[in-house]
Amino acid sequence: MRIEIICTGDEVLTGKITNTNFSYMAQKLEDVGLSVHWGTTVGDDRDSLLTAFKLAAGRADAVIVNGGLGPTVDDLSQEIAAQAAGVDLVLHQEWLDRMESFFTRRMRTMPPNNVKQAMLPATAEMLDNPVGTACGFALDIGGARFFFTPGVPRELRRMLEEQVIPRILARSGAPASIHLKRFHSYGLGESHVDQLLTGVEALDPDGGVKLGFRAHYPQLETKLTVRGTDMDDVRRKLAPITAEVKQRLGNFIFAEDDQTLEGVTLAALTAEGATLTLVETFTAGQIAARIAHLPGAEGVFRHGSVTRHLDELFGVPLPNQLDQVTTEAVAVAARQQTGASHALAVLIELDDGADRIDFGGTIWIAIATASRVAFRRSRILGGREWVRLGAVELALDCLRRLLHALPVVERIDFEKS
Fold first, then answer.
1. Fewer beta carbons below 10 Å: N end or C end of the chain?
2. Are 41 and 13 in contact (CB under 8 A)?
3. 378: closest CA among 407, 416, 347?
4. 295 — phi, psi (to 5°)?
5. How far apart, in whole angstroms, are the C-alpha atoms of residue 262 and residue 155?
6. Which residues of 373-404 are buried (b: 16+ CB within 10 A; e: fewer)?
7. Alpha carbons 400 and 260: distance in angstroms, whole number
């Protein structure tokens, strides 16, 4: 199955907006075993769009066109699709009624130019958009099936996952059931995990499991794409490989599938009836930002202190050079003074000098409870942002480990002696 993605819009072509839609679509297709062979970006120009559609129709089996379904004069996808397919544009009354209802529910009057969004090529199949006014559609141009999607990311994502991908899979002759299993880890690099998981695919003698990775520092996503005749077949193939991945990666796996590190940590705090105080330097409050907005955090998150440099924290004097005693004292004082059951202190000493690849920082972490204080020190190189991101992730992971009775100190690939 040869797939092409065409992204439209002058703002995309000129770089005024970052084209995150392409990466999202390509990743979602890859997750179900479909690969993108070509990616094309075209401005809001009739001749250029027509050329791109005809070129894709001659080399691809399926084409996803993103953007150009709005009500304004520079939204040209319907018009050029009809021209490329050699059919007329016709009013799609069902979608016009949907749009009018959309505006009525919001106590607004639909502008006349929105009628343009209900004009579709005569041979088009409508693709539902439950969260917007841009009607998606599919039709054949040449030997390819084209799928036209809105440019608004949240509208695209619903349509891609619910409407487009199932249709492409059906056309590709893929197995009836495809499932993506994901493991999220912190502390191991991609090449290291690749070595650790050598041979796991062979645990399925049918060859229905594909191993893949997506690295986004400081986390790594390990993916298992499983194909089967039905979900029972998928589960049968997946079970031994899932067990093996968990055994080989061990404590470094912090979440699975749609779970997040902060979500898992908050759930563990909630299960204990615990409350949390945070003390952060240099992170710009990113640890609090990861937790405080989550549902249920209102019952857990007690206090957050964000500083850049102070002579003292919670009455604890800060020396010119940090140490374990000072870090632990800050965590203990923060817990006692805010009344939380757990306090996490993350103090960072940055190197002197300009930002560069060998610029680094020392991260001092202490977690205080009523009965113990856990400590972790780590040195990370790679630049200011690398240190900041690493500190946020390491601190959350240390808290997660303590809450799950795992070793708080376990060497990671990103730290230096």
1. C
2. yes
3. 416
4. -60, 130
5. 26
6. bbbbebbbbbbbebbbbbbbbbbbbbbbbbbe
7. 11
Measured N-to-C along each axis, helices 46-59 and 77-85 cross at an angle, to the nearest 10 degrees, of: 50
pLDDT in tens, 149-196: 999 999 999 999 999 998 998 888 766 678 899 999 999 999 999 999
Of 24-38, 183-197, 202-216, give the range with the top mean pLDDT.
Answer: 183-197
Structure token digits, residue 53: 């559609």
Domain residue ranges of the chain, discontinuous segments joined by +: 3-172, 177-256, 261-403
130-146 per-position pLDDT tens digit: 988 999 999 999 999 99
- Characterize 35-65 residue by residue with b for buried, 16 or more Cβ atoms within 10 angstroms of its Cβ, and e for exposed: ebeeebbbebbeebbbebbebbbeebebbbb
Pick from 226, 193, 170, 399: which is nearest to 301 by CA?
399
Give the lowest-confidence range in 167-176, 192-201, 355-364, 394-403: 167-176
Distance CA 222, CA 194 (A): 9
Question: Which of the four CATH numbers 3.90.950.20, 1.10.10.10, 3.30.200.20, 3.50.50.60 does domain 261-403 have?
Answer: 3.90.950.20
Give the confidence band of 238 by pLDDT, cuts at 50, 70, 90. very high
Q: Which helix (H) or strand (E) holds 169?
A: helix 165-172
